[in-house]
Amino acid sequence: AILEISLNGGNEMDNKVSVLISEEEVAKKISELGKQISKDYEGKEIHLICVLKGGVFITVELAKHLTIPVSMDFMAVSSYGDETISSGRVKIIKDLDESIEGKDVLLVEDIIDSGTTLAYLLELIKGRKPKSIKLCTLLDKPERRVADVNVDYIGFQIPDKFVVGYGLDYAQKFRNLPYIGVIE
Ligand code: 5GP
Ligand code: MG
Ligand code: MG
């Protein structure tokens, strides 16, 4: 399906977004991840760390499917700016509010591309002495991996294409699309 999306402002050209993963497929997958994670953490409490901004959509949806006690915190890092190519640099824009010492932490990401961001975050989080740390990502682009990171929960593996929607932006837009799309 091809949808015509017009960017706000009117100055920019219309962008065509084609659906890669539908709204229904995303919802089903996150529900399955929620069931699996609830099972794996049975008898424990889970502390979700949402990586802003892209991780918001999956974090919220995932949290609704968890049947164990959940707490949440948010962190913002920047690695790309508005570019579509990784700069390899990671900067903390917003740090966690609460200590994670002794907590079973699940880091929730929108996408793992080169893995640079995740590798950096992982080191930072491990240094704060959580009881455990696992990783969950909605999307994984294995072809582009540079850093050696082990991901525990993956929604979808996708080809090396620049995707938008379900939290993922292009120049801060398209995050609100309820599906994963590719700009043509
Ligand atoms: P990494 O450090 O793994 O290369 O990149 C992670 C970050 O890059 C993601 O959190 C996301 O912000 C951005 N990114 C990587 N690939 C894509 C993509 O296909 N689309 C969008 N919108 N962002 C991406
Ligand atoms: Mg991210
Ligand atoms: Mg971005």
Structure characterization notes:
The chain has 184 residues and is of the alpha/beta class. Helices cover 21% and strands 33% of the residues. It is built from 3 helices and 10 strands, in the order ββαβαβββαββββ. It has helices at 23-40, 56-64, 116-126; strands at 2-5, 15-21, 46-52, 70-78, 91-94, 104-112, 132-140, 153-157, 163-164, 180-183. The protein has a 6-stranded mixed β-sheet, with helices on both faces. The chain has a 4-stranded antiparallel β-sheet with strand order 1-2-10-9. The chain starts with a strand and ends with a strand. The chain binds guanosine-5'-monophosphate and magnesium ion (2 copies). Residues 54, 79-80, 86, 109-118, 162-164, 168-170 line the site of guanosine-5'-monophosphate.
Labels describing this entry:
184 residues; alpha/beta; Rossmann fold; 6-stranded mixed sheet; 4-stranded antiparallel sheet; binds guanosine-5'-monophosphate; binds magnesium ion
The structural class is alpha/beta
User: What's the architecture in CATH terms?
Assistant: 3-Layer(aba) Sandwich
| Cα-to-Cα separation, first versus last residue | 12 Å
Q: List the domain count as a whole number.
A: 1
Beta-sheet strand percentage? 25-35%
* Hetero groups: guanosine-5'-monophosphate, magnesium ion
Mean pLDDT score, rounded? 89
- CATH topology call: Rossmann fold
Largest sheet: 6 strands, mixed
Radius of gyration based on Cα positions: 16 Å
Give, in order, the helices and strands. EEHEHEEEHEEEE
Shape: globular
Measured as a percent range, the helix fraction is 10-25%
Spans of at least 5 consecutive residues whose pLDDT stays below 50 are 8-13
Record field, number of beta strands: 10
Count of alpha/pi helices:
3
The CATH C-level class name: Alpha Beta
- Arrangement of strands in the largest sheet: 5-4-3-6-7-8
